[in-house]
Amino acid sequence: MGTNVDAANTEGTGSALIEKNPKIVFVLGGPGSGKGTQCANIVEHFGYTHLSAGDLLRAEVQTGSENGTMIEKMMSEGVIVPSEVTIKLLERAIMENENDKFLIDGFPRNDENRSSFESLTGIEPEFVLFFDCSEDEMEKRLLTRNQGRKDDNIDTIRKRFKVFTESSLNVINYYNSKGKVKKIDASKPAEEVFEAVKAVFAPLS
Ligand code: ADP
Ligand code: C5P
Ligand code: MG
After folding, report:
1. Whose CA is nearest to atom 12 of ligand 1?
2. Domain count, the chain
3. Pocket perturbation via mutation, ligand 2, pick of 81, 86, 159 by most ligand atoms within 8 A of CB
4. Host domain of residue 86
């Protein structure tokens, strides 16, 4: 079970989440580092539910909701959507699912994402899985991903790398200073990366 932090300060939807107290692993790494690919493997072998913040935001755009236009514009620029929007989507997805262990992929992306999630939900991750990969390799992967994503073009890819370096690495450093980061060399072929991932999850199951 996850650890509740400052639970007394939490209001609204967060309180239902506190009661559920799910086990959460944050899956972080640059764009194209292989988070989604490896999460699918972890789901298959270790019984977690995979929630990708980017996928939830894309789905929200598809619903035509009032925030949809704003989210779509921000994603096409590679910038980070306000935390309250993303956290609501994550909370809803966790509460709608019966599972009690989740991989949260691509979140938190900056300090504001991290601190808002912590204060709104009272949840601390069990650990952070960090996929470490060079920009050259990530760029190659993104340019050949072929999933029809508007942000997989060279201009937006460069902006996303800049956001990762300037904002997301801070989050990884923060958890590293708390001894919570499990770093994986993600530049290897996917099968080899999964061997390293298995070595992290197998002792826990
Ligand atoms: P992320 O979710 O981190 O953005 P994805 O899992 O979508 O990354 O992977 C990006 C692209 O790279 C996809 O086309 C995927 O098939 C491919 N890919 C994933 N892992 C590897 C790997 N270890 N080596 C080569 N290509 C990979
Ligand atoms: O993780 P993924 O590559 O699918 O994210 C795509 C985009 O979704 C990001 O570039 C960003 O615009 C948005 N996003 C966000 N906040 C998050 C995760 C993703 O704004 N926590
Ligand atoms: Mg992804």
Report:
1. 141
2. 1
3. 81
4. 4-200
pLDDT reported for residue 5: 44
Q: What is the pLDDT, as a whole number, of residue 1?
A: 43
Which residue, among 28, 30, 26, has the nearest Cα to 163 in the 3D structure? 30
In this prediction, what percent of the chain has a pLDDT beyond 70? Answer: 93
pLDDT of residue 12: 54
The distance in angstroms from the start CA to the end CA of the chain is 13
Is the CB of 51 inside a 6 Å radius of any atom of ligand 2?
Answer: no
CATH number of domain containing 63: 3.40.50.300
- What is the number of the ligand 1 atom nearest to the C-alpha of 145? 14
Residue 205, pLDDT score: 83
Nearest CA to ligand 1 atom 21: 190
DSSP 31-53: TTSSHHHHHHHHHHHH-PEEEEH
Q: Average the pLDDT over 164-168 and give the result.
A: 98
